[in-house]
Design brief:
Elements lengths: L1 H16 L3 H16 L4 H16 L5 H4 L3 H10 L5 H18 L7 H11 L5 H20 L9 H11 L6 H16 L9 H11 L5 H20 L8 H14 L2 H18 L7 H11 L7 H19 L8 H11 L5 H17 L1 H4 L3 H10 L6 H15 L5 H14 L1 H19 L1 H12 L5 H17 L4 H8 L7 H14 L3 H10 L3 H11 L6 H14 L5 H6 L7 H13 L4 H12 L12 H5 L6 H12 L2 H4 L10
Helix pairs in contact: 1-3, 2-3, 3-6, 5-6, 6-8, 7-8, 9-11, 10-12, 11-12, 11-13, 13-14, 13-15, 14-16, 15-16, 15-17, 16-18, 17-18, 18-21, 20-21, 20-22, 21-22, 21-23, 22-23, 22-24, 23-24, 23-25, 24-27, 25-28, 27-28, 28-29, 28-30, 29-32, 29-35, 30-33, 32-33
Length: about 650
């Protein structure tokens, strides 16, 4: 066979020297049909040797070398044969053709590469070694011709890699592919980054390879590519939006080192691309929020950097209405506000706060849903999250028509979650007063609770409101204004009192506290007489006990001083004695009894004056308030008997 091959080479070379290319083509066709396509393995081997001889005849024949690609395809078919010797000869023949054809052989590079990588993992050692030898030669040729596009179809090869690489699991094939890309990257004038979108996903997936050697090589390769992009960002041809789409997909579907590296890339592209990438902000935000809860080493920290940078761009470019579609961002934020991770929930609320500040118009379409989801977060076990949620709710309350809606939602949450009401009710109401103003908040709650059917819940809310109004330092100004509203003829404060009293009548202790605060002692006395005809239960007695504690505090120093002036405030002492008559023997009874005993001797020698005139009770809608108190605190069957008490009607 070897002798026959040498003879064939001489004959064909003679024809080629005479520029008779047809003899070469005829011979190639003959050996293809009669030998390579034969089912006889011996004939196939003979045909392969003939093709090696044909290739050798083309040496130093520039015109003939153009035909080199016609020799490759028939041989590639033999690489799929079951017989190991046939495969070995086929690889050797491709090697011989490439060695002669050099750059001309690259015209069928993708097809050759596809056949070759499969043989790198062949069960036959000789076949594997032959494939490795061919691999080395092709790399040399590629570098030699500097990946000349006239011979090496890079677009076709990258399309093949794009389709093939993600499915490759064999580590030897992975190693081969990585080595080829490193060769391509080493060629000075070859723009590998131009094809980044076709191989990036596959390389990221190779990071999860079981071979540490491949992990390290791919990691270094990706870092080198990223550094090159960063250093030459304005000069590289790259589809940033598509790359971000790939990265986002990887972050969503992968874990560990793959996700971490994808996050690093996303951060770098965001920092370099900035404003030009805002159309992908929704995808990036979704990925960032997901990664904030990742416990893998370093991923959450990188996600925090991404999050901070994206927020900085929102602040920087918020004046530009075409900057990004923030409505989609709001939808993502709402979807993640109940995320199991505290970091994610906190980041969501931080985003909402910044959108409210810098892009308030973007919140408006989703404000209703946003309000509902944020209200639920008031019950968050993490204090910082619940505090921030409350802060955002206060901001939402400033939107037109949303003040009462926010208060209503909070009341509904309290109604459903009594533990939250008990543990955080005072804190939440206090924060609302601080952010929205105490008077509007109190009026808002009074309106919402006016006809609330759940009386036990209503009494509890009023108890909290009353406690804050009478004791909290942040409400000092409002409390002082109420205290002297009659004396100063402050009609606005009087109307505020009346609005509170009509609702607070559901909680007799709170209503009485109000009357004592504004010094409407006759109203207090009348209310106590009405209560005497109602059911005196444990709850009412507890309210009286708390009222006694309040009356004995620094808040009511003015009241205790007025006890010394019985002739000017006769209904004050009467009402206090009435409370004493309600109380059973107890600590509260003893406290009040001692107070009254201390000033009892002062009451005998002073003529009583009209308290209505002294306290300007005519400024209050007295009958209206008494009627409301009666309607709430007396059963219907007892109300009809009240005409017997002329002082009430």
């Amino acid at each position: 066979r070897k002798f026959a091959g040498v003879e064939l080479q001489k004959v064909i070379k003679t024809h080629l020297d005479k520029k008779n290319l047809s003899a070469f083509k005829t011979s190639a066709d003959y050996f293809r049909v009669e030998y390579l396509e034969s089912k006889n393995d011996q004939l196939k081997k003979g045909g392969l040797m003939a093709y090696s001889a044909l290739a050798s005849s083309l040496i130093e024949n520039e015109e003939g070398l153009k035909l080199i690609s016609t020799l490759i395809d028939p041989v590639l078919g033999a690489l799929n044969q079951a017989d190991s010797r046939v495969k070995f000869y086929a690889v050797e023949t491709v090697y011989n053709i490439a060695k002669v054809g050099r750059k001309h052989s690259l015209q069928r590079f993708t097809e050759t590469f596809n056949a070759m990588v499969g043989l790198m993992v062949d069960s036959d050692e000789e076949v594997r070694k032959a494939a490795e030898k061919l691999d080395s030669l092709l790399k040399t040729i590629l570098v030699e011709c500097e990946a000349d596009e006239n011979y090496f179809d890079s677009e076709k090869f990258m399309d093949y890699i794009n389709e093939y690489l993600p499915s490759v699991e064999d580590t030897n094939i992975q190693q081969t592919i990585v080595s080829w890309f490193m060769v391509l990257d080493s060629i000075p004038d070859f723009d590998l980054i131009k094809y980044l979108h076709k191989f990036l996903e596959g390389f990221f997936i190779m990071l999860r390879s079981s071979r540490k050697e491949i992990n390290n090589t791919v990691y270094k390769f990706l870092n080198d590519i990223l550094q090159e992009i960063s250093e030459n960002f304005d000069n590289v041809e790259i589809d940033l939006e598509f790359l971000l789409e790939v990265l986002v997909t990887l972050i969503r579907t992968e874990k560990g080192i793959v996700r971490k590296e994808a996050c690093i890339w996303m951060l770098e592209l965001l920092m370099r691309g900035g404003k030009s990438l805002t159309s992908r902000y929704d995808d990036c935000l979704r990925s960032v929020l997901e990664c904030l809860s990742d416990t893998e080493n370093g991923i959450a920290e990188i996600a925090e950097e991404c999050n901070a940078y994206m927020l900085s761009l929102v602040k920087k470019f918020s004046h530009n209405k075409e900057f990004f579609d923030s409505s989609s961002l709001v939808e993502i934020l709402i979807a993640n506000i109940n995320h199991e991770s505290m970091k994610t929930r906190f980041a969501v609320i931080e985003w909402i706060i910044n959108l409210q500040i810098y892009c308030p118009q973007t919140i408006q379409p989703s404000i209703e849903k946003l309000m509902e989801t944020l209200t639920a977060r008031l019950n968050d076990p993490v204090t910082d999250v619940s505090d921030q949620a409350l802060y955002v709710l206060c901001s939402i309350a400033n939107y037109k028509g949303f003040f009462e809606k926010v208060l209503h939602n909070i009341l509904n949450l309290f109604l459903k979650n009594r533990t939250l009401l008990e543990n955080s009710g005072i804190k939440i109401v206090k924060a609302l007063c601080t952010e929205l103003g105490s008077k509007p908040v109190y009026i808002g709650f009074a309106k919402l609770l006016y006809n609330e059917p759940n009386l036990e819940f209503t009494r509890k809310i009023i108890e909290i409101l009353c406690e804050l109004l009478l004791t909290d330092e942040t409400l000092d100004e409002l409390r002082e204004r109420l205290k002297y509203c009659l004396e100063n003829e402050d009609q606005e404060a009087i109307e505020f009192f009346e609005a509170l009293f009509k609702t607070w009548s559901h909680n007799a202790g709170a209503a009485l506290s109000l009357t004592y605060l504004i010094q409407a002692y006759k109203l207090a006395y009348e209310a106590l007489h009405i209560l005497s005809r109602s059911h005196i239960g444990v709850e009412l007695l507890k309210q009286f006990s708390r009222l006694v504690d309040l009356l004995d505090s620094h808040i009511f120093v003015h009241l205790r001083l007025q006890m010394l002036e019985h002739h000017r405030h006769p209904f004050l002492l009467r009402s206090l004695y009435a409370i004493l008559m309600f109380l059973p023997p107890s600590r509260a009874y003893q406290i009040l009894q001692l107070r009254l005993k201390d000033i009892s001797t002062l009451h005998k020698n002073y003529p009583q004056q009209s308290e209505d005139q002294l306290t300007k009770m005519n400024l209050v809608h007295y009958d209206e308030l008494i009627t409301r108190f009666i309607q709430i605190n007396l059963p219907k069957e007892r109300i009809k008997n009240l005409k017997a008490f002329g002082e009430f009607v």
